[in-house]
Amino acid sequence: AKRQGKNNVQLYSKQIDQLSKANLETEMMLRKALERGEFVLHYQPQADVKARRITGVESLIRWHNAKEGMIAPDKFIPLAEETGLIVAIGEWVLRTACKQNMKWQEMGLPPMVISVNLSVRQFFQPDLIEMISAILVETGLEPEYLELEITESMMMNMDSAEQILHQLKAIGVKIAIDDFGMGYSSLNYLKRLPTDHLKIDQSFVRDISNTSNDQDIVATIIAMGHTLKKKVIAEGVETKEQLQFLQEKQCDEIQGYYISKPVDPAYIPWVIHELNER
Ligand code: C2E
Ligand code: CA
Ligand code: CA
Ligand code: CA
After folding, report:
1. Cα–Cα distances in Å, from 213 out to 179, 206, 218, 219?
2. Which tens digits make up the pLDDT trace of 251-261?
3. What is the ipTM score, two decimals?
4. Ligand 1 first shell, C-beta below 6 A
5. Whose atoms come closest to the Cα of 149: which ligand?
6. Can you give the pTM of this predicted structure?
């Protein structure tokens, strides 16, 4: 039994070796991808339910790899986060998204808020505020047209998170809590944090048409958000039935395939025009 135990340990460390070797290779590939400009942003519209118009777009990263084609963020963001590369990638995302939003404004599109996802590492970078301010100055985008999406996992260290959020509010950008309902969410922190938007996680939205349990959860999140004076946005809206339910419960905004999939920036003017003319 002892021998087998030892073999298991060896086998295990060999697996770890292989794993970290694979990670190192991917890390190198990610670094090169950034240098070579292989990342692209797609944008998904967000619609105001009552006014029936597009108020913003969320930027979502993809990796355009010559061999593999388009790679989804779930496949590389976790490793980028682990290795710290997310800081450089995230800065690229912020700059690209702000530049793009400026371009749309200059084209004469109705002004939209651009949402950018922040990773945990990025959020706790000491120069986060300076970096964002510099990008706003560089691109000329008014801060009110940039929204940062953060997750509940960043609130574990409540005091520093609160401080960072207040600094972000001070430069005038908007804040959304993403994937709301998935993590540790105490009413206390929600009340304290200066956030503008709550995004209901798509796992709750997915089942509102068939389980009354999720209907209750979604209705409760909307009501709670409104009590705290926050706008509530539902993500992953795919059907008319889901939209009708959300409308009935006074959800402010929706995002999802029912409105549009994330698209290449070149299509946005056309998509916005079509959606606003409905
Ligand atoms: P997320 O921020 O929760 O983004 C929403 C995800 O849901 C996106 O997946 C979007 O394409 C997808 N989605 C939108 N509408 C629907 C719908 O109606 N039905 C379904 N089934 N899915 C829908 P995507 O683009 O693959 O992104 C996955 C995750 O990767 C994001 O989840 C976000 O956590 C992360 N991510 C994406 N871009 C960035 C980025 O620039 N930086 C960081 N740190 N993370 C990013
Ligand atoms: Ca998001
Ligand atoms: Ca989300
Ligand atoms: Ca998510």
Report:
1. 18, 12, 9, 10
2. 999 999 999 99
3. 0.98
4. 44, 60-61, 72-74, 77, 90, 93, 117, 119, 178-179, 202, 235-238, 256-257, 262
5. 2
6. 0.92
